[in-house]
Amino acid sequence: MKNYIAKIEEINGGMEYKTEFLFTTKKDSWAYGNKVAADWRSGNSDYDSNVGGYWNEETIIRLDTVHEVPPEDFEVLRKYLPVL
């Protein structure tokens, strides 16, 4: 199992929101992160390749970044970020 930190980006008109979260997986980290992005607000999994993300009403939700985190850093970060 490897530990990761990822960032979800939401774009709603002129507003942009970024949320970081932690996760652990044995599988492809980008695939896991994209699953989280698809389920982020309402479970809408309609991917739009033109915008590179998922639509939820008027908001685009997409996986922005995924980075592997060493175990000792993961333990510190989990005190401050949600673990999904």
How would you describe this structure in keywords?
alpha+beta; 2 helices; globular
Layout of helices and strands:
Elements: E1 2-12, E2 15-25, H1 29-38, E3 47-48, E4 53-56, E5 59-69, H2 71-77
Antiparallel strand pairs: 1-2, 1-5, 3-4, 4-5
N- to C-terminal separation? Answer: 14 Å
Morphology call: globular
Oligomeric form of this entry?
Answer: single chain
Low-confidence parts lasting 5 or more residues at pLDDT below 50? none
Helix-strand sequence: EEHEEEH
Sheet with most strands? 5 strands, antiparallel
Q: What's the total count of β strands?
A: 5
Summarize the structure.
The chain has 84 residues and is α+β, with helices and mostly antiparallel strands. It is built from two helices and five strands, in the order ββαβββα. It has one domain (2-77).
What would you note in describing this structure?
By secondary structure, this protein is of the alpha+beta class. The protein has one domain. The protein contains 2 helices and 5 strands. It has helices at residues 29-38, 71-77, and strands at 2-12, 15-25, 47-48, 53-56, 59-69. The chain has a 5-stranded antiparallel β-sheet with strand order 2-1-5-4-3. A hairpin with a 4-residue loop joins strand 3 (47-48) and strand 4. It is globular, with a radius of gyration of 13 Å.
